[in-house]
Design goal:
Layout lengths: L8 H12 L7 E4 L6 H8 L5 E3 L3 H10 L2 E5 L16 E6 L5 H7 L2 E4 L7 H18 L20 H15 L3 H15 L5 H21 L2 H8 L3 H10 L4
Parallel strand pairs: 1-4, 1-5, 2-3, 3-4
Helix pairs in contact: 5-6, 9-10
GO molecular function: sequence-specific DNA binding
Protein name: Fis family transcriptional regulator
Organism: Sulfurovum lithotrophicum
């Protein structure tokens, strides 16, 4: 059975509303940004209901002829919404946006709004931890890095951007020297042009070297000693790379 976690009062009200009308042949729609868990919530509430996507018009039309209970995702993609017949059916739809409000209001007895993950910080933290576990398994990482506190949540595209940020974060922090060299090699191979490429791409090495060193040692004097360069040279490079 699909699991669904939430501490959001708004989402809990959606669940309560569905539970109160679960036995009725009425249709409902959940509208909200992409990747906010609308489909997971619908599957959690109606685990036995067939699911079709509005991206494939014919499949939706056929399913409506055969099923009394149906989950329709991507409802906004359907081109003939006003011609759909939901009489004596329990339709649970999800949509990234409402589209024609008049048609939506006619077809659905209940219209719910799914909040974004930015509005559900505790839910985002829960999903973050699940994605870290999944990424550790997928990337075959034996032990997670100790600096997970430095991970910055990216909720710009809800769970999609969060998941991408986690996989990127772990990939970068578990790369060995050879992998880093290969990454730089292919980046330069793809982008190298111009008449001053040596100086331009030297920044790929110098800037992170100085930034990491300053953070680790907290002193320009100490870092200049560690790097084996003059302190004035270090200051010049900090200025060249616009390092705060």
């Amino acid at each position: 059975m699909e699991q669904f976690f939430t501490t959001s009062e708004q989402v809990q009200q959606i669940i309560k509303g569905f539970n109160l009308t679960k036995t009725l042949f009425v249709s409902s729609i959940i509208i909200g940004e992409a990747h906010t868990g609308k489909k997971s919530l619908a599957r959690y509430l109606f685990p036995q209901a067939p699911m079709v996507s509005g991206k494939v018009q014919k499949e939706v039309e056929q399913a409506l002829e055969e099923q009394d209970e149906l989950i329709i995702t991507d409802f906004e993609m359907l081109s003939n919404q006003e011609a759909l017949d939901f009489d004596n059916k329990r339709i649970i739809a999800t949509a990234n946006f409402a589209g024609n409000y008049s048609t939506i209001d006619t077809l659905f007895a209940f219209i719910y709004t799914m909040p974004s993950f930015k509005e559900r910080p505790q839910d985002a933290l829960y999903i973050r931890d699940l994605f870290f576990q999944q990424a550790q398994h997928d990337l075959m990482i034996e032990k997670l890095p100790a600096d997970l506190s430095e991970f910055k949540m990216d909720l710009s595209a809800n769970s999609k951007s969060l998941k991408r940020a986690i996989y990127t974060f772990l990939t970068i922090r578990t790369m060995d020297k050879k992998s880093i060299e290969e990454a730089v090699y292919y980046y330069i191979m793809e982008h190298i042009t111009g008449n001053n490429a040596y100086k331009e791409y030297l920044e790929l090495y110098e800037k992170p070297l100085i930034e990491a060193g300053l953070k680790k040692y907290g002193s320009q004097l100490k870092l200049s000693q560690v790097l084996g360069i003059n302190r004035n040279t270090l200051r010049k490079k900090i200025h060249e790379h616009t390092i705060d």
